[in-house]
């Protein structure tokens, strides 16, 4: 029996990077997985790699109707939602805070923050009716230790951390746990935006700032998410789990 046997998980931003890693890891542990991404082709590729236990769904998490449709698709196919992983994220390119455009700021707010509000409205009543559930939000080590040139992104991830703790407090009587992951930078597409310049030298500098001397991998983040989603963490809620190779120490 896998640790997530007979459970259903929705993972947003699951077409690549950390989200794809989480989707595949959850499926390995017996979960039915809803692979949600704004890029349907990527979601389809990840779902195909997983097999019959996964369905791909196009979802722009900044739109309430897309989130509602995503949740409806999960219920129609699998009949329940036990785990909600709010992983989709957006960042502005590393630059001075006064140079970030209003459009980029609004996207950060919509994808990194408001999407959690939409998904909470949609899944909490379902989880409460089932007797409980687990909500996992992807924050960042920048919520704890900001990186220069990413002010508005850092702030959005700090909001995720604070919102998660507040959610945990309010949802505890419903037996719904809420936790967040704080990953350090991984060698993913987003890394190109987080760096001032995407050069071997800048990558090396970031890597050197991590005590274990390496970037995080999708498997690292997926294993942490698996623990938070499983019954092994049944007494854990309101936690910001640092998956960062010691960066936040």
From TrEMBL:
SUPFAM superfamilies: NAD(P)-binding Rossmann-fold domains. InterPro entries: NAD(P)-bd_dom_sf, SDR_fam. The keyword Oxidoreductase applies. It comes from Phyllobacterium salinisoli. Keywords: Oxidoreductase. It comes from the Bacteria. One of its GO terms (molecular function) is oxidoreductase activity. It holds the Pfam family adh_short_C2. Belongs to the short-chain dehydrogenases/reductases (SDR) family. This is SDR family NAD(P)-dependent oxidoreductase.
């Amino acid at each position: 029996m896998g640790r997530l046997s007979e459970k259903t998980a929705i993972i947003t931003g699951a077409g690549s990077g950390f989200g794809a890693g989480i989707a595949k890891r959850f499926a390995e542990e017996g979960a039915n997985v809803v692979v949600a991404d704004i890029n349907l082709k990527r979601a389809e590729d990840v779902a195909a790699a997983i097999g019959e236990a996964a369905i791909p769904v196009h979802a722009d998490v900044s739109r309430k109707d897309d989130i509602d449709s995503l949740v409806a698709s999960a219920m129609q196919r699998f009949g329940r939602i036990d785990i909600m992983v709010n992983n989709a994220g957006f960042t502005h390119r590393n630059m001075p805070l006064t140079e970030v455009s209003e459009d980029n700021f609004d996207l950060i707010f919509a994808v990194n923050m408001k999407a959690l509000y939409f998904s909470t409205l949609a899944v909490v009543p379902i989880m409460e009716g089932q007797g409980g559930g687990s909500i996992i939000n992807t924050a960042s080590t920048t919520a704890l230790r900001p990186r220069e040139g990413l002010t508005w992104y850092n702030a959005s991830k700090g909001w995720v951390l604070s919102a998660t703790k507040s959610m945990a407090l309010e949802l505890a009587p419903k037996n719904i746990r809420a936790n967040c992951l704080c990953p350090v930078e991984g060698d993913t597409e987003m890394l190109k935006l987080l760096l001032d310049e995407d050069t071997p030298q800048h990558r090396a500098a970031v890597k050197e700032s991590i005590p274990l001397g390496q970037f995080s991998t999708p498997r690292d983040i997926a294993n942490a998410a698996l623990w938070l989603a499983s019954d092994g963490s049944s007494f854990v809620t309101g936690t910001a789990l640092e998956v960062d190779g010691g960066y936040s120490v």
